[in-house]
Design goal:
The complex is a heterodimer. By secondary structure, chain A is mainly alpha-helical. In chain A, about 80% of the residues lie in helices and about 0% in strands. The chains are: A mainly alpha, B mainly alpha. The interface of A and B includes residues 21, 22 and 40 of A.
Chain lengths: ~150, ~180
């Protein structure tokens, strides 16, 4: 739209002015600039690891707390785990195995053989009167027999 | 040592040659970028800060420079963005209302001990400072730096047509201000 040659027509006052830079700088500014920039650049390079350190510094209390919990965990939970849970684990394993065994046995028996097993004479416990008296004498008191016979 | 910017860019991307290449880049572009920044922020001390920040940004992001534009327009772009960021953060810091920006910049101009122009040059700078931000950038880049519209388009991320229109409006406003001020002198 505006060519520099047309400036005279569009802006006569502006085109009358000598095109010059009105700003100045301190002496030797550009000669010293590179050295000053280098100092700032070195400082900038150092801020990157410092930033990482700052993050660690902020997280330090939290890290200390986490380390304490880890220590307590190691001191308390680890010995407990070494002794207690083994027993618990083996017990549960046993229970699980027994239950499984029982289920497999029950599943393996058909209805007829189940009743046959109940009716089998060898399964009925036979005991003599002496056995019964000695069992009662050792396991039941006289007072219990008295109560059982009177109610 | 470097005949063109391509060799310079290649070395900037190599770890072992980076320091030397960067030193060359700073020496080659520091003055041009300084004057570009100075015309935006006005004050010398501010221009010095922004120029240093510009080169630090260049150092940090040179690995991402893909060479789609020339090194020169890429550097101008960073310098422009850094300058505008600096002005905006300063405005916020000094609680300057949006419509008083030119007054704030004018104070910067008046308080700058390194302004060496005469009375009429001061009037021209005042006229430029009264322009809206985009027009001010375009006017400075075209009138003083005589930058090509194509390059300016890459720096300011604006179409050539819009830049030409901005310059046209800027010239008219500057002319009006100068006419008024010269009549009163």
């Amino acid at each position: 739209m505006v060519k520099m040659d047309d400036l005279k027509n569009i802006a006569p006052e502006l085109s009358k002015l000598k095109k010059e830079n009105p700003y100045g700088t301190p002496d030797n500014y550009f000669d010293n600039f590179s050295a000053r920039l280098q100092v700032k650049l070195e400082a900038e390079k150092r801020t990157i690891p410092e930033k990482q350190n700052r993050i660690i510094r902020i997280l330090k209390p939290a890290l200390g707390l986490a380390a304490s919990f880890a220590l307590i965990f190691m001191l308390v939970y680890w010995p407990l785990k070494s002794f207690m849970p083994n027993n618990v684990a083996s017990n549960t394993e046993e229970l699980e195995m027994n239950e499984l065994d029982y289920l497999s046995i029950v599943e393996g028996i058909d209805e007829n053989s189940f009743y046959a097993l109940l009716d089998e004479p060898s399964n009925s416990v036979e005991f003599s009167d002496e056995d019964l008296i000695s069992y009662v004498n050792t396991n039941v008191s006289e007072y219990e027999i008295y109560l059982a016979t009177h109610y | 040592m470097y005949n063109d910017d391509r060799g310079l860019i290649a070395d900037l991307k190599q770890e072992n040659k980076r320091d030397l290449a960067f030193h060359t880049l700073v020496n080659k572009y520091r003055e041009r970028l300084y004057w570009h920044i100075r015309k935006i922020v006005i004050n010398h001390e501010d221009a010095d800060d922004v120029l240093q920040n510009t080169f630090i940004k260049v150092w940090k992001s040179v690995g991402n420079f893909r060479g789609e534009s020339s090194l020169y327009t890429w550097l101008y772009r960073i310098a422009t963005n850094e300058s505008l960021t600096f002005i905006n953060s300063n405005k916020k810091r000094h609680f300057v209302p949006m419509n008083d920006v030119s007054e704030y910049m004018m104070n910067n101009l008046m308080s700058d001990p390194y302004f060496e122009g005469d009375k009429i040059q001061l009037k021209l700078q005042e006229a430029i400072l009264r322009l809206p931000e985009k027009q001010r950038l375009v006017f400075n880049m075209k009138y003083f730096d005589e930058m090509k519209y194509d390059d300016m388009s890459k720096v300011l991320d604006t179409s050539v047509g819009a830049l030409k229109a901005s310059f046209h409006h800027a010239v008219k406003k500057v002319e009006e201000y100068l006419k008024r001020e010269i009549n009163e002198m």
